[in-house]
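TA notes, week 10

Several of you asked for a full example with nothing omitted. So below is the full record: structure tokens for the whole chain, then the designed sequence directly under it. When grading your own attempts, check the secondary structure regions first.
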């Protein structure tokens, strides 16, 4: 985006008018690039530096986290800097970091990139939190599959960002269509209770699912809507036979949720009836501890939503460490670059 299109003065802020007929409150891509999601004090800073003749001063800025985690959001941050004369170093997406590690270094005119401090910190803070939560689920699941199901817990404008970060952190896929497409993948998911409730029968829905869905869609059927889960698992297995890839357990908390005992029973009854090929997919209120326990009980794959989507943002801070090539820092911080050999140059 041309620099002339970015907010640069308080006069522009005062005169900015929202377009008539706006329906949603989320920022568009254009509004983010224009600097409209920034904290207003960065606009004031840019105008002051320009007024003092310091707009061309070269600075080094570094971003560091307050806690450990997995970095995500780098590609979006780099996109903010498109067309700028900057040098940008960063950890790669998916890299681990410790508290106070330098995760990104930006060298260039502060008047060029400073207006994006709010946006870049927010991108890294939220995306890294989601990726970190997903990594904890991955560690609990081991080599078993887990899918991010968290889109329903977030504003739709950021749901694809969350699910993309979850895949960076270790999820095998995402249910959100746009998130999956942004990753060059196909969305993954089964079928909700609504279909079974409207139809009034699990087996009839399973048969129609098998008839209508593309061959590449795994036949995984939800089995907790009407009857005992173990009984319904066998009913569906008999109806679909070898075509059935798995059964999904999503028993609500009002009935105790999905327990280790339930998983063991369903597994045993399927095996005894000759359906050892049928996998058990579990969803509903999962976290790493529950994933670990249910995996040990025999669950084969997992759908994880609110644990990932509800992750608290990892506080990120950007400090100026050099001005005009000279080490500098505010009181309490160490002047000069903080070395991190894992940084890779992106720009």
């Amino acid at each position: 985006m041309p620099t002339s299109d970015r907010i640069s003065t308080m006069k522009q802020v005062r005169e900015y008018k929202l377009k008539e007929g706006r329906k949603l409150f989320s920022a568009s891509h254009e509004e983010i690039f224009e600097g409209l999601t920034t904290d207003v004090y960065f606009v004031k800073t840019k105008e002051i530096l320009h007024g003092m003749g310091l707009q061309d001063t070269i600075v080094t800025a570094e971003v560091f986290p307050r806690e450990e985690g997995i970095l995500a959001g780098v590609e979006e941050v780099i996109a903010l800097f498109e067309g700028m004369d900057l040098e940008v170093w960063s950890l790669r997406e998916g890299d681990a970091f410790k508290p106070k590690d330098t995760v990104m270094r930006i060298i260039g005119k502060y008047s060029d990139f400073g207006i994006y401090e709010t946006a870049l910190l927010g991108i890294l803070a939220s995306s890294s939190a989601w990726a970190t939560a997903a990594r904890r689920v991955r560690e609990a699941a081991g080599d078993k599959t887990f899918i991010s199901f968290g889109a329903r817990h977030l504003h739709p404008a950021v749901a694809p960002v969350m699910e993309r970060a979850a895949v960076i952190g270790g999820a095998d896929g995402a249910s959100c269509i746009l998130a999956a497409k942004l990753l060059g993948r196909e969305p993954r998911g089964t079928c909700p209770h609504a279909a079974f409730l409207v139809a009034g029968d699990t087996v009839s829905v399973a048969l129609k699912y098998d008839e209508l869905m593309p061959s590449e869609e795994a036949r995984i059927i939800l089995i907790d809507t009407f009857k005992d889960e173990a009984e319904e698992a066998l009913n569906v297995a008999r109806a679909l036979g070898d075509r059935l890839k798995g059964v999904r357990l999503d028993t609500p908390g009002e009935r105790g949720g999905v327990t280790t005992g339930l998983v063991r029973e369903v597994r045993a009854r399927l095996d005894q009836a000759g359906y050892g090929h049928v996998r058990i997919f579990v969803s509903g209120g999962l976290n790493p501890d529950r994933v670990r326990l249910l995996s040990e009980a025999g669950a084969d794959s997992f759908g994880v939503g609110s644990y990932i989507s509800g992750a608290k943002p990892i506080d990120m801070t950007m400090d100026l460490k050099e001005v005009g090539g000279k080490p500098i820092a505010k009181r309490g911080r160490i002047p000069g670059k903080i070395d991190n050999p894992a940084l890779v140059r992106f720009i």
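The mean pLDDT is 96. Use that as a sanity check on your answer.
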